[in-house]
Automatic annotation (TrEMBL), chains A, B:
InterPro entries: Acyl-CoA_dh-like_C_dom (IPR025878), Acyl-CoA_Oxase/DH_mid-dom (IPR006091), Acyl-CoA_Oxase/DH_mid-dom_sf (IPR046373), AcylCo_DH-like_C (IPR036250), AcylCo_DH/oxidase_C (IPR009075), AcylCoA_DH/ox_N (IPR013786), AcylCoA_DH/ox_N_sf (IPR037069), AcylCoA_DH/oxidase_NM_dom_sf (IPR009100)
Recorded superkingdom: Bacteria
Domain Acyl-CoA dehydrogenase/oxidase C-terminal intervals: 283-450
Domain Acetyl-CoA dehydrogenase-like C-terminal: 465-588
Gene3D superfamilies found in the cross-reference section: Acyl-CoA dehydrogenase/oxidase, N-terminal domain, Butyryl-CoA Dehydrogenase, subunit A, domain 2, Butyryl-CoA Dehydrogenase, subunit A, domain 3
Acyl-CoA oxidase/dehydrogenase middle domain residues: 161-268
UniProt record similarity statement: Belongs to the acyl-CoA dehydrogenase family.
Residue ranges occupied by any Acyl-CoA dehydrogenase/oxidase N-terminal domain in the UniProt entry: 38-156
Protein's name according to its UniProt entry: Acyl-CoA dehydrogenase
Organism: Chelatococcus albus
Keywords: FAD, Flavoprotein, Oxidoreductase
Cofactor needs: FAD
């Protein structure tokens, strides 16, 4: 079973859950029409299905390899990457000034989902390149932009992010890599970076590293970190490649998943220092990184959606083929296991959670777009804050869902799920990295609670809650028994989120940070559950309306069923999560004694 | 970080949660004293820590291998297995008539936990042997017993269970392997079996296969399946090994985890049929299997506890060593990540869930023992039913917990968790099989709801509920603020379980099997949550009482903290699960439309 991009569901979610329909009606997206959007998704889906998906199993089995510091991707990867870049997919979200197509985040998010669903290990390289392009576009000098952006945007070169060092993971205060001014405007970079995704490979002739490092006189901590552009090959004034820079890949990691994505230990400055160029201001490197982090975090959330979708499709296919036992009400003989209620429950959980996470991610992308594109400055500000609020939820909820759905996918396969050749296990192994990188999900939860809830004195989160409540009201007003408990359970979840939010805002105002920190993880989950229920209810409302207007597509009944299933089985977790949140820091009293034995 | 058997916690759980203390006081366990119990655990722990645990990483890396049908376990495994069997550990639970030590299930369960925590791939072979010994002891002829049991009990030979065929997994109706009477009292077995754990290996000179097969005139379905003993090497009348039997290992699987445990495709009868001997009556093979299934399912549940414990220890060790960021209230500099509230929450979740699952498994073992050993026949009957009720919960809840805790273990390690050399990923990969084999967790949930709830007209489950309620009452009566919400949340969970149980009993009585089948999985989880909360509260009560009597062991405060943490953060899921249960089959209405797209 290969991947088939769920273009109809994606387009429906974009239009009716993320509100792209309305944004288009407002003229926010310029010439981008629904038709064009759907054409782009169709084309991206075709490339993902036909070209990338076939690489995935083999990529897992072969993995990236390293010989004498040279890293090779699996056979066939370079050809597909080159075709992909030549088709313009890398340039999709980039600034037209540098050769990009300038398409909005909603389109890019849907495409990122398809690349990652077809092969997460493949799509990860371009994801990092996109981050590098963004940071350079926002912060680098005109000269650096002119030298590097056209190649990076075209995908002829790829980019990396070099943050982590052995002693500096979640805590970048501890970065030690040094940068010494060379006197000619450039710097000499010395140090070691670990966990560098696509730090070295054979897909492109040059690799552009963005490296966090400290100047000699830099203050301690994160306020003394600067960002440098350090190319693998130096670039001559005419744009041709010059000398090899003083950097190398020392080794690649042996990982649980995404085997074909090389995770490199990079060594800078064996011979006096790699030549690097400052991006942005001195000592402001972390700020440069943060400007692109919202996008990168959203993209990782989309990876969670992607792997969940892939695992779901794989499991559904198997469950329809595999026959065991007789399902209730079935004729004699064995039924497809998809007809057994407990397997159906697993498949519905997979699909409902995937759709919920997709809704959250696309809503976040739409808020990002509105933050850039809205005509009104105040609306841009509000939308930007909404995107900031939703980003940690999109990242952490979706990547947790990715793992849970992939694990359910293994379970649906029974014994076959544990056999590597089946493919289900790979999705589970691949998915496991997403809750860790680009800021662990614990860090996301702390970001949500400590930095995002207080935005505009709590108004931003209140606006999000009001929006969810409106959806519940609309379901009630639709007054159709087909919705079952959808409105009641959604309202219950929003009430819980509301009370939990008030508890946390009060804790932060009262300087009870311990309570907020202890409660951060269940709070983020609660947020995702409520927002996910609202996303599915929105889709159900749109489907309901379409049916009312005579649209006989059976998918509409499916969307209503999915919202109801989520309401009954997943949104019902909200009150328990609220209770966990409001237990506060006291729930960890004597924890050190409990953990001592 | 290697494994250190948590002997103190295990003994405490046995005594105060599983009630072994009281059972000993009643004289149920004969000469087995607390002292002797603790000595056995200490010795088993020593063997597990020192001999088995060092095999685990290497076993994962090397894996079992096959060349020309010969299967090799990793280097060193045979030596450790031989030493383990010679030390008498294999014989521990077996009938003294055949060389066993006749120790009860509570002792065996604790030991099984240690073998599996030190290496699940290693311990799996003996687990299957124990099942074979049990089936032969209960059902085979005197002659078969005399020929095979002494060697199997001593661990000189190992045993296997051959159930699954490509078309017959959860549904054994479809078994096709044939058995023809040879006229001399033996049978000729022909067919193919898949997923046969330790079906072939180099640990012992002979392997005794128990094989499900059909006689020529057998009725269709499961009532036409018989059980046969089929040795790898035939046994001469003097007990020496004779000719090689007509069976072979065709291949071994490439699996997600437990790499060192060979999972074999077995072929019987290439040359006219393997010689087999009937165990039990013709066409009653499935009944013979079922008598030993409670024990085997409990043992798999214990595997879940084991891998959770191992993952917890690994993560705790890392979290205490690894320093990042400054924890709230800490002095300057980086704190161990174990001091950060969100990491502490992960560790507490790991420990609380592990202890809850351990409590449930040991309680199940104690009920099994009481079912055999109680003086009063009515008590034996009731205890036997209680064990039957708890077994699917012990199996499914504990193995789900095993996966969840192992996944949290990866998360605690951050990026290092995704690197195979760290070891955390292996626990997650190994753990993933346990919810699948020995009856998938979906099958367990159906068993619980369809066959176990109706036991004694619902009296058995009512007795379990009453027991949990008593624990809540005792916590309330203790009237100490240190318990926090323990009593309230436990009572809430029991109330939810009670209502969900009534709903299901009513559905079953009203022939609304669809409702029961659709609700089975959340019901089992709810049962585990309530029973787990009760188990931890029991431990907390015992710790509280010990403190009252002047015992200053700080572990007691830890036990109370753990029960409170579970109550606040995990038991609070109960009401949501109840709502999912009582949504019934309607929650799957139109599911096929939702899954169609």
């Amino acid at each position: 079973m290969s991947y088939r991009a769920p273009v109809a569901d994606m387009a429906f979610t974009l239009k009716h859950v993320a509100g792209v329909d309305q944004a288009m009606a407002e003229g926010l997206y310029g010439e981008l029409s629904v038709d064009l959007l759907e054409t782009i998704l169709e084309e991206a889906g075709k490339f993902a299905n036909e070209r990338i998906a076939p690489l995935n199993r083999m990529g897992d089995e072969t993995g990236a390899t390293i010989v004498d510091g040279k890293v090779a991707t699996p056979p066939g990867w370079k050809e597909v990457y080159t075709a992909w870049a030549e088709a313009g997919w890398n340039a999709l979200p980039c600034d037209p000034e540098w050769g990009g197509q300038g398409l909005p985040s909603v389109v890019q998010s849907a495409c990122v989902e398809m690349w990652n669903a077809s092969s997460m290990a493949f799509a990860l390289g371009p994801l990092l390149t996109a981050g590098a392009v963004e940071a350079i576009t926002a912060h680098a000098s005109r000269e650096l932009k002119e030298t590097y952006l056209p190649k990076l945007v075209a995908g002829e070169w790829m980019g990396t992010m070099n943050l982590t060092e052995p002693q500096a993971g979640s805590d970048l205060n501890a970065v030690r890599t040094r940068a010494e001014p060379a006197g000619d405007g450039s710097y000499r970079i010395t140090g070691q970076k670990i966990f560098i995704t696509y730090g070295e490979h054979d897909l492109t002739e040059n690799i552009v590293h963005l490296v966090l490092a400290r100047l000699p006189d830099a203050p301690a901590g994160t306020r003394g970190i600067s960002l440098f552009l350090v190319p693998k090959f130096l670039v001559n004034p005419d744009g041709t490649l010059g000398a090899r820079n003083d950097l190398r890949c020392h080794s690649i990691e042996h990982k649980m998943g995404i085997h074909a994505s090389p995770t490199c230990t990079m060594v800078y400055g064996d011979h006096g220092g790699a030549i690097g160029y400052l991006v942005g201001e001195e000592n402001r490197g972390l700020n440069c990184m943060f400007t692109m982090m919202n996008n990168a975090r959203l993209a990782v959330g989309v990876q969670g959606v992607a792997i969940a979708e892939r695992a779901y499709q794989h499991a559904l296919h198997y469950a329809r083929e595999r026959r065991q036992g007789r399902a209730p009400g079935a004729a004699d003989g064995m039924s497809p296991i998809a007809d057994h209620p407990d397997v159906q429950r697993m498949l519905m959980t997979m699909k409902a959670q995937t759709q919920a996470a997709r809704g959250i991610c696309y809503m976040t992308a739409a808020a990002l777009d509105r933050g850039h594109l809205a005509k009104d400055a105040e609306e841009r500000r509000r939308s930007h804050e909404m995107a900031s609020l939703l980003t940690p939820v999109a990242k952490a909820y979706s990547t947790d869902i990715g793992c849970e759905v992939a694990s359910l996918g293994v379970q649906v396969h029974g014994g076959m799920g544990f056999i590597e050749e089946t493919g289900a296990a790979q999705f589970m192994r691949d998915a496991r990295i997403a809750p860790i990188y680009e800021g662990t999900n614990g860090i996301q939860a702390i970001d949500l609670v400590m930095r995002k809830l207080p935005l505009s004195g709590g108004e931003t989160v209140r606006a999000a809650l009001a929006e969810m409540r409106k959806v519940a009201t609309r379901v009630t007003q639709a007054n159709d028994p087909v919705f079952g408990n959808t409105a009641a359970r959604l309202r219950g979840a929003v009430d819980s989120l509301d009370r939990a939010t008030s508890y946390l805002l009060k804790a932060l105002a009262g300087n009870a940070q311990q309570d907020a920190l202890a409660a951060a993880t269940p709070y983020l989950r609660l947020f995702g559950v409520a927002q996910g229920a609202a996303a599915l209810a929105r889709a159900a409302l749109a489907a309901h309306e379409a049916r009312r207007q005579g649209d006989g597509d059976p998918a509409h009944a499916g969307r209503i069923a999915l919202a109801r299933f989520f309401a009954d089985n997943i949104a019902t977790a909200a009150e328990g999560l609220e209770q966990a949140v409001t237990a506060g820091a006291a729930t960890l009293d004597d924890a050190e004694l409990a953990l001592a034995s």
